[in-house]
Structure formats: structure tokens, C-alpha cells
Amino acid sequence: MPGLIEDYAIIGDLQTAALVGKNGSMDWLCLPRFDSSACFSALLGDQDNGHWLLAPVGAADCTNRAYRGDTLVLDTFWETPSGTVKVTDFMPQRDKAPDVVRIVEGISGRVAMSGELRLRFDYGSIVPWMRRTDGHRVAVAGPDSVWLRSEPEVRMYGKDFCTYADFTVAAGERVAFVLTWHPSHEKQPQRVDPYKSLKHSLEDWTKWASQCRYEGPWRDAVLRSLITLKALTYAPSGGIVAAATTSLPEEIQGVRNWDYRYCWLRDATLTLNVLVSTGFLKEAGEWRDWLLRAVAGDPADLQIMYGLTGERRLPEFEVPWLAGYEGSSPVRVGNAAVQQLQLDVYGEVLDSLYLGHESGLAEKRHAWNVQRSLMDFLESKWREPDEGLWEVRGPRRHFVHSKVMAWVAADRAVRTLERQPHRKGDPASWRAMREDVHREVCDKGFDTERNTFTQFYGSQELDAATLLIPQTGFLPPSDPRVVGTVDAVRRELDHGGFVRRYTLDDSTVDGLPGGEGAFLACSFWLADALHSTGRKGEARELFERLLSLRNDVGLLAEEWDPLAGRQLGNFPQAFSHIGLVNTALALSGAGTAR
Ligand SMILES: OC[C@H]1O[C@H](O[C@H]2O[C@H](CO)[C@@H](O)[C@H](O)[C@H]2O)[C@H](O)[C@@H](O)[C@@H]1O
Asked: Ranges for the Trehalase-like N-terminal domain (predicted)?
């Protein structure tokens, strides 16, 4: 059985990531990329679907663990009756092949350790052939090969399609394991030196983190979220994945299990804004370049998400041989939302490029041409219903948030032309569109009786995305309609002191059975909205409660189950960490002015 979602910590090499449990078991790892098939899928099934345990013999959860300083190098400690041992897990920055390094170090006494490596390629379905070569144990099946060695060599043996390692470490002794993925048709991968790699990883992460400009009261939490966002970046292209996992459920035993190992324009532009606001202009520039490449072509073909290097086909299918996290099935790979119309994305992209420009991000020559063609397309589309930012699988609607973001797109395009009148564009027409959208939203998307914006035109339902209205500039925070909306969302979408995305009842718009937890990003948005509407104490109190939901190493999934008191959904999730950083900035008075 996998652990609780919050039992996991992430390590990664900016091309893929692994999740390691408190019990020392690596239960999720996709190789060679975030979106490749997993060779460890115990997270979505059981040990037979692949995992790598390294822990004291007979031990359960560790005594404590922490990332070392401002890095993604994880130290896990077990205090046992015979002594204390530390396992240091990390993935070195990639040369050619991805490596996972696990260094076992005796701290005191003598500790008997046990290793269990069950490699199962293709999401737990393929048991590879194992052989010994040149001091390695090598697993091969189809295109994949995985090489394992230890320094010094320890006793390893195979039994029941599992590789076991038995050894003892005394105080001051170290045993390093290096696991390397390699295309099976190529020759032996180059060896990495585990100790040199550790030194480089520590230096690289520390140097990267030192660029952070945020110095406010929540610096540790902010930095951990930024490191996590960086860990979700696919360095070769600059793409940013929404989370490291697929199918961690939004409801235990429910069907709301989705694959987040792709680049959403929405999630990634919001990540970009956070990076720009905290001083990481290099990553912001790389993502902007990824974006311009990904969306190049006919604006009618713009997708709401792409693969790591801009791939357009992400077909969704079910993986029936995996039982799902705590029985939550189906497990899905790919994401059918790729074909949806989500009008908000145009607003997010234009806002983010505008913000990047205002923050001093070097201009790209053809960036404005892309923005212009997106605007031309949006002008012809904004009156249509869409699936909205929540990617509903029910009928299309006139979602208020989508229209507000269409207003944002027009607003940022107009403002860019006002500042740079030499650029080509149609300011009169975009201004007219901006006014039309504003009028229509206030007319059709506002419930005058309840004094609140609604989820979609003509509905009685509420949507936490309307909390973003004051942030976008659509209406000022002091507007009574904004204040009314904040009150209504807080009252009607409350879930155990946090916030649901929208009402979940029989008439739910999303077309899906079952329920879900409180949505963490929305809960951060409520804190932002309370702060901007002058309720600073309440904003801070909510923010502190949200911080307390992070796991022991500062990580957040997508949702929180207030009844069970546990995290839900894909993990770690960019959206939640973006929310954390934005709220910390806003509450510290360091937010970004648009
Ligand atoms: O609720 C159904 C939808 O759930 C997923 O979408 C959510 O995750 C996205 C990535 O973080 C985010 O951009 C979106 O706002 C969320 O609603 C899922 O990816 C969809 O396929 C599904 O329809």
C-alpha cells in the first residue's frame, strides 16, 4: 500500500521527478521524462507495480527528514535501537542519462539495512529481464534499461523478480547506490560519481535559490515553493508541468483522477508570473520562449495544454492494470482536456507576456505578432461558451471567469499599444471589445439579489474563480460587487474553513460523479481577496492555516480533505505552490502591480 499523499517528498533533475515516502520507498518515477511511462508505479497500485525501498531492516516510517538547505537533496533519518542512519536521495543534474542516487550513511552505532528494487516498466506492467554486467544489475525490457550499482559493492541477489540488497552501515561508513536509465539499444551508460554529483547538486540548487528576491516573513515557505516550481520545469525546453504525477485522486475511491504531467498554458503562465515577481527572470524567459514556440501557427489551433516540448497530441487512455491510489480508478494517462476551448487562457497568456515586459524581460521580436493574432482570434470567439478554467466535462457554458479573462486579454493588448504606439494592432476594436465584455459580464454574470458574480450566465451557482476579479483589474477591490462576491464565495463555497472550486451538488456543471476536497489555489485566492478588500487580519489567519497544511517538507497537493485531514490530488502541484507564493507576496506588500 502506498503512503498518504503527504508522506511523499519530491526529488528530480529538471527532466523528471521521483516521489520518496517516509518509509524510504520510492513509489513513483517516470523515465526518462516527466511524461514517460513509470518504472515505479506503487503509488497507483502496490509494490508489485514497481518501487525501490531502502530503509533499516524492519523499520517503518523515518524519524525525521528534511531537504538540505535550499536544495532538492533529501535527507531521511531513522533512529533505530542499534543506531542512527541517514539516506540522502537526489537526482544529479543530467548529463546524458537520468540517474537516481541514494547514499546510505551511518551516523551512530550499526544499522542493518535492506534494499528492495522492483523495476516494472510501462506503468507497472512489464517485468524486465535482469542480468549482471560489469558490477551492475541490469534490467532490460523493450526500449528501457535500468542499471544499478553500489559503491562499495554490497551483497545483492535476485528473488521473485525483485533485487534485494542486505548490508550493514556503522557510524562514519557510507554506501552509495546509483540507478541509471538508458535506452536499451545503446552501450553501457557513463558512470556518475555519487559524491561529486551530490556536491554539484547542493551547489547548483543553493546558487539558484540565492537569486530569490523575496525577503518577507514567509521566506522559507516561499523558497520551498519556488524550488518545487523549478523542479516541475522541463529544462531542455523551458516547459513547466502542472504536477509530477497522474491520477492521484481528488476524492478517495472516486473517478476524478487526471494526468498532470503536461504543460498547461494557464498553470505555466501563472508560474511564470510568480518567477518574474521573485527575481527568476531566466526561467521566465525560457518559459516565454517555450510558449512562443508551442503556440506558433494558426491561432485557431491554440491548445490549452501541450507536451513538454510543445507536442500537441496527448490522447487520454485508462490503465486498467493499476488499481489506483487507494482504489481510486481509473488511472489515466494523457488528458482529453487538451481539445477543450478555454477562453481564459488567452487572457492568462497576454497578461503574462505583458507582465514579463513590464518586469524587464528582454523582448522577443515576434512575441507581439503572436499576441496580435491571439487577440484577433479571441475577438471572434469570446462570445462563445467554453469549458472554462475548471475544464468541465459537462456542456459548454458562458463562464464568468472565462469572459473576465477575455477582458484581461483585450485590456493588456490595449495597454501595450498605449505604451508602445508604434506597434501594429487595432486599438479601437480591442477597446470596443473590452467595453462589450465588461458590460455583458456585469449584466449577465452578476446576481443583483445576492450581490455576487455567479459561475456562468443565468446560473445561481458560485465559482471561486470570481475571487480573481479584483486581481485582474476588471473591478477595483473596493467595488461593492467584489466585496459581495468575496462574502458569498466565503459563505457558500466554504469547505472546512477552506474553499471549494464551485458548488458540488446534483446539478453540478462538471459532468462528473462524486465530490472533491477544498481546492488549495482557490483558498489562497480567498486570502488574496480578503487582503485586497481590507480584511487583512482574516487574510493572514487563512494564509497561516493554509501554510499548516503543507507536509513536513513543505509540499502541497492540489486539494485538502478537511474531514479526513489529508491532502488530495496530484502532487506536488504547481497551482497550489503558485497560490502560496502569490499570497505571501501580497500579504508582505511585495505583490506585482499590473
Ligand atoms: O475537473 C476536471 C478537470 O480536472 C483537471 O483540471 C484541473 O487541473 C488543471 C491542471 O492543474 C488546471 O489547469 C485546471 O484548472 C483544473 O481544473 C483535469 O486536467 C481535466 O482533464 C479535468 O477535466
From this structure: 5-150
